[in-house]
UniProtKB/TrEMBL annotation:
Reaction catalysis annotation: S-(5-deoxy-D-ribos-5-yl)-L-homocysteine = (S)-4,5-dihydroxypentane-2,3-dione + L-homocysteine
Name listed for the protein in its UniProt record: S-ribosylhomocysteine lyase
Subunit structure: Homodimer.
GO terms for biological process, alphabetical: quorum sensing
Class of the enzyme per the UniProt entry, highest EC level: lyase
UniProt: Fe cation binding residues: H57, H61, C124
Function of the protein: Involved in the synthesis of autoinducer 2 (AI-2) which is secreted by bacteria and is used to communicate both the cell density and the metabolic potential of the environment. The regulation of gene expression in response to changes in cell density is called quorum sensing. Catalyzes the transformation of S-ribosylhomocysteine (RHC) to homocysteine (HC) and 4,5-dihydroxy-2,3-pentadione (DPD).
Cofactor annotation: Fe cation
HAMAP family attached to this UniProt entry: LuxS
Enzyme Commission (EC) number: 4.4.1.21
Amino acid sequence: MPERMNVESFNLDHRAVAAPFVRVADVKRLPDGDVLTKYDVRFCQPNREHLEMTAVHSIEHSFAECVRNHSDAVIDFGPMGCQTGFYLIMVGEPDVPATCELVERTLRDVLALTEVPAANEIQCGWGAHHSLDAARAAVSEMLAHRDEWEQVMA
């Protein structure tokens, strides 16, 4: 393994994980006592599969909008550049089981959508670059493995 890097995910042996999973990727304790937890919400097995960009884009929009119906603790939900998952940043101490429940509830909301939120040129920088069908397929596959999400390593 190369020398330790500043970015936590760069220190993770991506060959040793078994996607899909939800794991704590980082915890930041802020000067005034607040805690931010970054979760790795991994849909695809690294270096073997990836999400197409229209799916990534549509999941990002849909999840980011829907998750806030369930939690005020959400700071951000954004895609990984490798297209294998997303980072969910929340206020509070790490709680993987509760976060898995939140992710599951939100993904079920995504499946019920009839259109991708804000998928237009007024609200999005590339409004035409979406696929609700691709998002639904990826979300369905993720949910099919719900009982495995807390098992990160192969």
